[in-house]
């Protein structure tokens, strides 16, 4: 709860900093403030507490994921300073919106009441709608914002409808009460309809097939840094929330639920990977790669009681690799009209550090040891086998093989072609963020125990 | 002084080589690889009880994995192969001028590190990680410093990567399943496991896919010739000399003891595939016009025979396979080096463009001749020991296997000698062939000396691997 209040306070400060002429100080203050908030959050580990009639519940799950979100936001904000350099008049708004987005994210993993959950998801989504359309002179950005807003609010409607059905069936918004009721028999059938509706809404938010159609267009049209936010922070938030929602509403889901999850996961992995193969635009490619990763993360829903640690590890590994790769992508395509694979030609020669970071983060996403992505996939596979779904694992393996095809397309372009255009300068801040993020990823790979065991 | 030092030495060597800069890189790399060889020889000669060198630290708590290394005669023999060939391979490349040499030599040492790790690892997860780590450096070595047009090279290397990674991922699934059954990845725990015959079949073939692609066994060999041809000679040497042996070693260490019932049931199938590779490789080699491709296919034939030896599940088969792995490693590195020496002078790999070299350089001709004879398993070379033990073990299973497998020697002699004739003999070539340098001579002489010494006196190496093979056989024949 302290985290949530502090983040909101920081957001409001950034909004007003403009007025008292502190524009230059916004990014450093925001980053330092978030680091302090990270400290507060981490200190709450192992001190579970409940606030305001169980509206907000702080437990290890929420603390761990909140910390991850804060770290990701710090990275994103650090890059914002350079990214919005040429839009000084909107600067404080963009920073403030990103911090509010984080507040929504924290609310989504620490809710104890479905109304709080909905509040969180709306804060997050509305911030993202604005950010997607934030490059207001670009037609693509406008399209992305509009598309995302229309489809996103449709999904929010689904979630709201689902919450109403659950309330109608149980008479509660409080998840603990709903959980207690769901253990007994005799719930009306619309309880399950309600949960299904909420699930559909959440599957939309994480861009799982067949609810993924918005993702490529929105990713492509949004400003690159916003794409980075969506593909790392927003995706991770949505997956964590989905997991928390399913575990806290009903721990013993019927067998049918698992079969549906397996089917959706396999479909998502296949769609994401196969379509990514055909993309020339790097942002679209990353969108489809993100879709396939959503499929992997869905597998965590098959072993609800034990998968929290694995899911945390997977999301962190994926998000750090994503931040590292998007830092490079942002840096390279900053002054370019397109974001095609060919724009990366010869990066291995013009900027070996950025090329190496991008290579490593792509290798992590492809699941090559010693990067964290490997352990993430592997422990997910182990768990899924224990849950008895070998077929999902084999589908995962096959889609991992396919994913090599497009990840390596980018690597090959960097190392095996000569640069077409003159080299532009690469601002140092992207390099610092990229190197830090990939270092975190490799650190997780060398010593995976530190994160697997957090959520025992 | 133990094996962790050895691994650290190679890894730190890779880092220091990278730091040392382009000018010093090759020398630093040579220094570290030679030091690794020194450590290996020191361990082999001074340590009485190899099991005292075993290492085991807890690494990850869930899934439970250890940093566990198993040291016995077999793994040390393979480490010796790695650390003995690496300095020679590095030395052999001194005449080449590589762009950004620091990256190149750092990758070579890193690959040696990963391969040595694969041979030593006694924990399934650790083993898998080393196994995959070895793939990344060779990918970049072949891609960035390879021959021919970039587009063709890119395609060949990507195919190689996807093939091997695809196979390995199925092995990973097998490991995940084994972990689910045994609760640990440790080799000792996996050996204890009692699997039903259905489970064994699945595990056996999941492993087989990974190893058959790496070795390669027919019909998973299609990546091989292209990559051998496109990779720089150093990469080809690392691949054919050491990396293929990772697959063969893993068959003995992991696949057979974990799924022995399936290995017995499917023996005719895997033996058939292996021996088919022998015939196929030999026949295709007959028709090659490119020297490197010819050697690639001859390698396919030889490793097919080694794989057949492993899958006989007999003492002779396994021991012959180990001998032949080491012998083939040395001889194929030598042969690729000879091809490189010719390329440095004539800038061609097409056999038809060569010829008439003998009169210009009798020294090189003799050295090359000995390597060719070793490759066709002439008595007195180490290859003879390996190849004939394997053939003998095949004849114990079924005499026809031995007869068909034996054609590798006849066909091998035919295409190798024909190649030698076309490349070296004939009328004096108009183009000048500068005599081999001291460095080039040293590498070839060391390789040949090794092959001849152990060809005449194979006992030390046989004694070294004997206990490990007995242990593996007990494990295979447990009920």
Automatic annotation (TrEMBL), chain A:
Q: What's the protein's topology in the membrane?
A: Multi-pass membrane protein
Domain (NADH:quinone oxidoreductase/Mrp antiporter transmembrane) ranges? 113-403
Keywords associated with the record: Cell membrane, Membrane, NAD, Quinone, Translocase, Transmembrane, Transmembrane helix, Transport
Tell me the superkingdom of the source.
Bacteria
Give the molecular function GO annotations: NADH dehydrogenase (quinone) (non-electrogenic) activity; NADH dehydrogenase (ubiquinone) activity; quinone binding
Pfam assignment, any one:
Proton_antipo_M
EC code(s) of this entry: 7.1.1.-
Cellular localization per UniProt:
Cell membrane; Endomembrane system; Membrane
Any one GO biological process: ATP synthesis coupled electron transport
Transmembrane intervals = 27-45, 57-79, 99-132, 148-169, 189-213, 225-243, 255-275, 287-305, 311-332, 353-375, 387-408, 428-447
The UniProt entry's GO CC annotations, sorted and at most eight, read: endomembrane system; plasma membrane
User: InterPro entries given for it?
Assistant: NADH-Q_OxRdtase_suN/2, ND/Mrp_TM
Q: Which top EC class is named for this enzyme in its record? A: translocase
Q: Can you state which reaction this protein catalyses? A: a quinone + NADH + 5 H(+)(in) = a quinol + NAD(+) + 4 H(+)(out)
PANTHER family in the record, alphabetically?
NADH DEHYDROGENASE
- Similarity comment: Belongs to the complex I subunit 2 family.
The UniProt subunit note reads as follows: NDH-1 is composed of 14 different subunits. Subunits NuoA, H, J, K, L, M, N constitute the membrane sector of the complex.
As for what it does, the entry says: NDH-1 shuttles electrons from NADH, via FMN and iron-sulfur (Fe-S) centers, to quinones in the respiratory chain. The immediate electron acceptor for the enzyme in this species is believed to be a menaquinone. Couples the redox reaction to proton translocation (for every two electrons transferred, four hydrogen ions are translocated across the cytoplasmic membrane), and thus conserves the redox energy in a proton gradient.
Q: What is this protein called?
A: NADH-quinone oxidoreductase subunit N
Per the UniProt record, the source organism is: Flavobacterium stagni
Q: What is the lineage of its organism?
A: Bacteria, Pseudomonadati, Bacteroidota, Flavobacteriia, Flavobacteriales
Point out the gene that encodes the protein: nuoN
From TrEMBL, chain B:
Q: Which keywords has UniProt assigned to this entry?
A: Membrane, Transmembrane, Transmembrane helix
Q: How does it sit in the membrane?
A: Multi-pass membrane protein
Q: Does the keyword Metal-binding apply?
A: no
| Transmembrane regions | 6-21, 28-45, 65-91, 103-122, 128-145, 157-180, 200-222, 234-254, 266-287, 294-314, 326-343, 364-385, 397-417, 438-457
Q: Which InterPro entries does this chain map to?
A: NADH_Q_OxRdtase_chainM/4 (IPR010227), NADH_UbQ_OxRdtase (IPR003918), ND/Mrp_TM (IPR001750)
Q: Which GO terms describe its cellular component?
A: endomembrane system; membrane
| Ligase listed as a keyword | no
GO biological process: any one? ATP synthesis coupled electron transport
Q: Which GO terms describe its molecular function?
A: NADH dehydrogenase (ubiquinone) activity; NADH dehydrogenase activity; ubiquinone binding
- Superkingdom is Bacteria
For the NADH:quinone oxidoreductase/Mrp antiporter transmembrane domain, which residue ranges apply?
Answer: 123-407
Q: Where in the cell is it found?
A: Endomembrane system; Membrane
Q: Which family does it belong to?
A: Belongs to the complex I subunit 4 family.
The name this protein carries in UniProt is NADH-quinone oxidoreductase subunit M
Native organism is: Flavobacterium stagni
């Amino acid at each position: 709860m302290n985290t949530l209040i502090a983040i909101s306070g920081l957001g409001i400060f950034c909004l007003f900093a403009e007025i008292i002429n502190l524009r230059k100080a916004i990014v450093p203050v925001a980053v330092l403030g978030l680091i302090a908030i990270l400290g507060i959050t981490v200190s709450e580990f192992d001190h579970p507490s409940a606030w305001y009639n169980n509206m907000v519940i702080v437990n290890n799950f929420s603390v761990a994921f909140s910390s991850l979100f804060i770290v990701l936001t710090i990275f994103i904000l650090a890059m914002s300073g350079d990214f919005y350099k040429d839009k000084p008049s909107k600067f404080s708004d963009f920073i403030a919106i990103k911090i509010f987005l984080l507040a929504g994210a924290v609310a989504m993993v620490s809710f104890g009441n479905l109304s709080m959950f909905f509040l969180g998801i709306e804060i997050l989504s509305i911030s993202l709608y604005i950010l997607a359309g934030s490059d207001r002179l670009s037609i693509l950005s406008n399209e992305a914002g509009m598309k995302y807003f229309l489809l996103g609010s449709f999904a929010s409607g689904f979630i709201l409808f689902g919450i109403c059905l659950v309330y109608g069936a149980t008479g509660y918004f409080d998840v603990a009460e709903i959980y207690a009721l769901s253990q007994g028999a005799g719930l009306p059938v619309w309880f399950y309809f309600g949960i299904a509706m909420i699930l559909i809404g959440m599957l939309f938010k994480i861009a799982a097939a067949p609810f993924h159609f918005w993702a490529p267009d929105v990713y492509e049209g949004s400003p690159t840094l916003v794409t980075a936010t969506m593909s790392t922070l927003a995706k991770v938030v949505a997956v964590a929330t989905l997991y928390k929602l399913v575990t806290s509403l009903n721990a013993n889901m019927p067998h049918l639920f698992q079969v549906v999850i397996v089917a959706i996961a396999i479909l998502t992995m296949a769609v994401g990977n196969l379509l990514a193969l055909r993309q020339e635009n790097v942002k679209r490619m990353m969108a489809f790669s993100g879709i396939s990763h959503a499929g992997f993360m869905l597998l965590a829903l098959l072993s609800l009681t034990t998968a929290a640690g694995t899911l945390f590890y997977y999301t962190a590994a994926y998000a750090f690799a994503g931040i590292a790769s998007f830092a490079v992508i942002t840096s390279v395509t900053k002054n370019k009209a397109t974001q095609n694979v060919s724009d990366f030609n010869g990066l291995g020669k013009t900027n070996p550090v950025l090329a190496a970071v991008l290579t490593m983060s792509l290798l992590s996403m492809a699941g090559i040891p010693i990067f964290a992505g490997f352990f993430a996939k592997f422990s997910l596979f182990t768990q899924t086998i224990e849950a008895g779904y070998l077929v999902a694992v084999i589908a995962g393996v096959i889609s991992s093989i396919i994913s090599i095809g497009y990840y390596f397309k980018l690597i090959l372009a960097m190392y095996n072609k000569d640069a077409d255009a003159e080299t532009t300068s690469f601002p140092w801040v992207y390099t610092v963020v990229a190197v830090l993020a990939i270092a975190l990823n490799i650190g997780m790979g060398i010593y995976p125990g530190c994160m697997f065991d957090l959520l025992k | 002084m133990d094996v962790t030092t050895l691994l650290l030495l190679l890894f730190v060597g890779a880092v220091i080589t990278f730091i040392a800069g382009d000018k010093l890189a090759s020398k630093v790399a040579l220094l570290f690889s030679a030091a690794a060889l020194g450590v290996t020889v020191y361990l082999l000669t001074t340590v009485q009880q190899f099991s005292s060198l075993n290492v085991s630290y807890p690494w990850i708590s869930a899934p439970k994995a250890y940093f566990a290394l198993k040291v016995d005669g077999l793994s040390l023999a393979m480490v010796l192969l790695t650390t003995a060939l690496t300095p020679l391979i590095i030395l052999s490349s001194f005449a080449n001028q590589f762009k950004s040499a620091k990256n190149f030599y750092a990758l070579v040492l890193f690959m040696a590190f990963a391969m040595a790790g694969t041979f030593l690892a006694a924990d399934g997860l650790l083993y898998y990680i080393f196994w995959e780590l070895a793939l990344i450096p060779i990918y970049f070595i072949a891609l960035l410093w390879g021959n021919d047009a970039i587009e063709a090279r890119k395609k060949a290397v990507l195919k190689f990567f996807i093939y091997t990674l695809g196979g390995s991922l199925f092995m990973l699934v097998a490991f995940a399943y084994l972990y689910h059954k045994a609760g640990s990845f440790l080799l000792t725990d996996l050996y204890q496991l009692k699997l039903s015959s259905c489970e064994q079949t699945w595990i056996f073939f999941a492993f087989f896919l990974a190893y058959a692609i790496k070795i390669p066994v027919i019909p998973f060999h299609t990546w091989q010739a292209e990559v051998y041809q496109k990779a720089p000679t150093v990469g080809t040497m690392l691949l054919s000399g050491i990396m293929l042996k990772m697959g063969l070693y893993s068959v003995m260490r992991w696949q057979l003891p974990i799924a022995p019932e399936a290995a017995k049931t499917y023996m005719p199938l895997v033996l058939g595939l292996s021996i088919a590779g022998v015939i196929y490789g030999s026949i295709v080699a007959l028709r090659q016009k490119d020297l490197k491709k010819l050697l690639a296919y001859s390698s396919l034939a030889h490793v097919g025979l080694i794989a057949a030896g492993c899958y006989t599940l007999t003492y002779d088969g396994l021991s012959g396979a180990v001998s032949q792995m080491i012998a083939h490693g040395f001889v194929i590195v030598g042969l690729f080096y000879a091809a490189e020496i010719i390329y440095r002078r004539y800038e061609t790999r097409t056999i038809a463009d060569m010829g008439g070299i003998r009169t210009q350089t009798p020294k090189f001709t003799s050295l090359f001749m000995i390597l060719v004879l070793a490759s066709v398993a002439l008595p007195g070379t180490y290859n003879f020991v390996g190849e004939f033990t394997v053939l003998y073990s095949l004849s114990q299973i079924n005499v026809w296997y031995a007869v068909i497998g034996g054609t590798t020697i006849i066909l091998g002699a035919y295409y190798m000698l024909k190649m030698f004739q076309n490349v070296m003999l004939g009328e004096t070539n108009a183009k000048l062939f500068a005599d081999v340098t001291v460095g080039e001579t040293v590498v070839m002489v060391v390789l040949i000396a090794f092959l001849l010494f152990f060809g005449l006196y194979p006992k030390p190496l046989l004694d070294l691997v004997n206990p490990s093979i007995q242990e593996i056989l007990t494990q295979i024949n447990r009920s």
